[in-house]
TrEMBL record:
Its job: GTPase that plays an essential role in the late steps of ribosome biogenesis.
Record HAMAP family: GTPase_Der
Protein name, entry field: GTPase Der
Annotated keywords: GTP-binding, Nucleotide-binding, Repeat, Ribosome biogenesis
Organism: Novosphingobium flavum
NCBIfam families in the cross-refs: GTPase_EngA, small_GTP
Binding of GTP 1, residues: 9-16, 56-60, 119-122
Gene Ontology terms describing biological process: ribosome biogenesis
Entries under InterPro entries matching the protein: G_ENGA (IPR031166), GTP-bd (IPR006073), GTPase_Der (IPR016484), KH_dom-like (IPR032859), KH_dom-like_a/b (IPR015946), P-loop_NTPase (IPR027417), Small_GTP-bd (IPR005225)
Length: 459
């Protein structure tokens, strides 16, 4: 269980923006009007090596307990139970209000560490508000900007004393029993891409029915649609369950101006979060564009297995040249994961759709793979022997051993000394070796560096 950090404050001080900043995704709906958030929302946050569960709450309002705002406040009060730290957020530009002071009084009565966060602190207009916060008696306030990401280092230092000893132990995780992975479980397969690439048409072709609305207009799909279906493998006649997820088209960020489209794109990103394998659909008549690479990078950053499918292959010109050109551009533009599967399909004629599904199941197997620690360290010893780590400035970097802490996506923890001096090129060497030698194919891999704590560091 990860430690839990709760965000508390009056409406419209930027709690949901802070939540989104810490989880690294726009999970919480944000708008200028107060009171957008009503229910608690949980997210997995990562801050400079600290892992914790972050909880966004409704704005604290002084209303009748039977009213909607009053019930929202009751939800916030209940959510403190089980939390390890509270982030009390106020608007530094507006300064303290009577409602802020009421919240502070309530927090002082709780047996919970509180960190005061002065949000919207960019610029000199916030200085007086930050000074006022010293009067709350909850410690020094942190100057923060959730919108721009300023103050993350200060927030990390404030959270570290409360969360450091509650971090999950990667060694213990690696020694736990193997994660149960059932290759026959439902494959969660999301289809993403630019508008009008043929995502809904592809799903209709797989289902062999007009399940989703399609047409020549771009942007017909707005909500992410999930459809449970069974695919029959033509080679074995075995039926395998699939959950197909159709998503809204993702245009360049500068072109997305309407609020509804912004929400649709955010919904598509959430669909990626809940998928296992993501198919990025290209339009063969338009080739590979910069926006496609941005979408692919987003999918890989989320740790999902990625397949690139070129649709409308039946009308492609110079098919061989197009395929080779896209392959080369992908290897150059997605250097972090070379060799991403590339499949040419046609939703209109049904070309290679079974191949696409088979590749999806195969890459999920690689994405879910766990390597025994003994085999992993045999590879590790060979990798060190073939290419020892450098000694920058004459200081030797000692790499002791490696464990696989998680799967889906595969996550490894490397233990040693002076790891802060390990060059990124050597880190890439290890990741590429894991992928190439241990059968992980073109799936995203996480490598965390962990050094033992220095007992004399504070003396």
């Amino acid at each position: 269980m990860l430690p839990q950090v709760i965000i508390i404050g009056r409406p419209n001080v930027g709690k949901s923006t802070l939540f989104n900043r810490l989880v690294g995704k726009k999970l919480a709906l944000v708008d200028d009007q107060p009171g957008v958030t009503r229910d608690r929302r949980f997210g997995e946050a990562h801050l400079l090596g600290l892992d914790f569960t972050i909880v966004d709450t409704a704005g604290w309002e002084d209303e009748d307990p039977s009213s909607l705002p009053g019930r929202m406040r009751a939800q916030t009060e209940v959510s403190v139970q089980g939390a390890d730290v509270a982030l009390f957020v106020f608007d530094a530009r507006a300064g303290l209000t009577p409602l802020d002071e009421e919240i502070a009084r309530w927090l002082r009565e709780q047996e919970l560490p509180v960190i005061v966060v002065g949000n919207k602190a960019e610029g000199r207009a916030a200085e007086s508000g930050l000074l006022e916060a010293f009067s709350l008696g909850l410690g020094d306030p942190i100057a923060f900007s959730a919108e721009h990401g300023q103050g993350l280092g200060d927030l990390f230092e404030a959270l570290l004393p409360h969360l450091d000893d509650k971090q999950p132990d990667p060694e213990a995780e690696a020694e736990e029993s193997e994660e149960d992975y059932d290759p026959k479980a439902v494959l969660k397969l999301a289809i993403v891409g630019r508008p009008n690439a043929g995502k809904s048409t592809l799903i209709n072709a797989l289902l062999k029915e007009d399940r989703l609305l399609t047409g020549p207009e771009a942007g017909i799909t707005r909500d992410s649609i999930s459809i449970d279906w069974e695919w029959t493998d033509p080679k074995t006649a075995e039926t395998r369950p699939v959950r197909l997820i159709d998503t809204a088209g993702m245009r360049k960020k500068a072109q997305v101006v309407e609020k509804l489209e912004k929400l649709s794109v955010a919904d598509a990103r959430r669909a990626v979060d809940f998928s296992e394998v993501v198919v990025l659909l290209l339009d063969a008549t338009r080739g590979l564009e910069h926006q496609d690479l941005k979408i692919a990078s987003m999918v890989l950053e989320e740790g999902r297995a990625l397949i690139i499918a070129i649709n409308k292959w039946d009308v492609a010109e110079d098919a061989s040249g197009l395929f080779n050109g896209i392959r080369g551009a992908l290897d150059e533009g997605l250097a972090q994961v070379r060799g991403v599967p590339l499949v040419a399909v046609s939703a209109r004629t049904g070309k290679a759709l079974d191949t696409l599904l088979q590749v999806a199941f195969d890459i999920r197997d690689a994405w879910s793979k766990r390597v025994p620690t003994a085999a992993l360290n045999r590879w590790f010893d060979d990798a060190l022997g073939a290419n020892p780590p450098p000694a920058p400035g004459g200081k030797r970097i000692k790499l002791r051993y490696i464990t696989q802490a998680k799967t889906r996506p595969p996550g490894f923890v490397l233990f040693g000394t002076r790891l802060d001096m390990l060059p990124e090129s050597y880190r890439r060497y290890l990741i590429n070796g894991i992928r190439r030698e241990l059968g992980f194919d073109a799936v995203p891999i996480r490598l965390t560096l962990r050094s033992p704590k220095n007992p004399f560091a504070t003396k």
